[in-house]
Design goal:
Elements (H helix, E strand, L loop, with lengths): L2 H14 L2 H4 L4 E8 L22 H6 L4 H4 L1 E10 L6 H15 L6 E5 L5 H11 L6 E4 L12 H12 L10 E4 L2 E4 L4 E2 L8 E2 L7 E4 L2 E4 L24 E5 L7 H8 L4 E6 L7 H12 L3 E6 L14 H4 L2 E2 L5 H12 L5 H10 L1
Parallel strand pairs: 1-2, 1-3, 3-4, 4-5, 11-12, 12-13, 13-14
Antiparallel strand pairs: 5-6, 6-9, 7-8, 9-10
Length: 353
């Protein structure tokens, strides 16, 4: 065979190869924190009453051998807890590790395995402090690893594909379970037990995982990750911010207790459009006079909390949460307080993120 013919044959073979075989696999690091995805039950039908955070990261990876076909995967056990025990210190540790990994040229994306109870809070915290456009995907499971219908393996598989996808670059931190892709800012756990619990009720999913591929249909318009102004690289603690829940017959006891305990900020999950019962309003006004930042949110979970709507926020010097739930407003207020105590500036932050 002539040199020209052999080159032509080689070219034909290259064209005939599947696209996946021509492209190198992405490098994805899985950071494990525990949760139900690493949980075990007494029997294969135990889907409640199991023990979370028992399985290590290597066992999680070994349980899904298909991962090696879609990415070069490495695992690290950052912590091993049930997510109801997630706290500020753990968030800072996790964020610093994520940023260190994403700064490496040989890391294309990061997956974080996490308990579902606080997955939306960890995801939103990372959405505000990760300093890279590279994909970060937070994933969990609603059933333990020993369950006959365990959802952890397919969720992890999809999360790794998503973290290695070029389509996910610049989309912010993502939460991926049940074949659905959600934005960290907007997603919430909506059911105590079902596999389709993670929802963005009014704004909707960003997209779906299907046929080993991410399909995006929209993206979040708020600032996040590489465009965020927040930097936790030098922080070893965050300001104390607490949440007060609104209800009929509410009193001022919780507000006063949090102020006495040293709270720097209070988020009130008010009724309706963030409405405040008279005793609660009086307590929050007193708290503000003592320098405590006050944010009005709403327990409804959807919709905009209108500034100067149910309360004259200009007069009371309160901030409104826009569409953030109380648990996410707490996170944003903590980070805002690391930069400023000016309420006008903090309100600007809430309208930006």
């Amino acid at each position: 065979m002539s040199l020209k013919a052999s080159r032509f044959l080689a070219l034909l073979l290259l064209v005939a190869l599947p696209a996946a075989a021509q492209q190198p696999l992405p490098n994805v690091v899985i950071l494990a924190t525990g949760g139900t995805i690493a949980g075990t039950g007494a029997t294969s039908t135990t889907t409640v009453g199991y023990t979370a955070a028992k399985i290590g990261v290597e066992a999680l990876i070994d349980a899904v051998p298909e991962l090696k076909k879609v990415a070069n995967v490495k695992g690290e056990q950052v912590m091993q807890i049930a997510s109801e025990n997630m706290n500020n210190e753990a968030w800072l540790k996790l964020a610093k590790r994520v940023n260190a990994l994403l700064a490496q040229p040989d890391v294309d994306g990061v997956v974080i395995t996490h308990g579902t109870d606080t997955i939306e809070e960890t995801a939103y915290f990372l959405d505000l402090v990760v300093k890279s456009d590279k994909p970060v995907v937070v994933v969990g499971a609603m059933r333990p690893s020993t369950a006959i219908s365990a959802d952890g393996p397919i969720n992890l598989y999809n999360a790794v594909i998503l973290a290695g996808s070029k389509d996910a670059i610049g989309k912010g931190v993502l939460v991926c379970l049940n074949d659905q892709i959600n934005a960290a800012r907007e997603v919430t756990k909506s059911n105590t037990a079902t596999a389709d619990t993670f929802r963005t009720p009014e704004l909707g999913f960003l997209g779906y995982m299907q046929d080993n591929k991410a399909h995006f249909y929209r993206e979040s318009t708020r600032r996040h990750t590489a465009k965020s102004e927040f930097d936790v690289s030098q922080l070893d603690k965050l300001p104390q911010v607490d949440i007060v829940y609104g209800y009929a017959n509410a009193n001022r006891v919780a507000v006063d207790a949090f102020v006495a305990a040293g709270a720097k900020g209070i988020v009130n999950a008010g009724v309706g459009d963030g409405s405040l019962a008279d005793p609660v309003k009086a307590a929050l006004i007193d708290a503000r006079k003592k320098g405590v930042l006050v944010v009005r949110s709403a327990r409804a979970g959807n919709g905009i909390v209108a500034r100067n709507g149910e309360v004259n926020d200009d007069q009371t010097d309160f901030v409104v949460s826009d569409t953030l739930t109380a648990q996410k407003a707490r996170i944003l207020l903590m980070l805002a307080l690391t930069k400023t105590t000016d309420t006008k500036e903090i309100q600007r932050i809430f309208y930006s993120y």
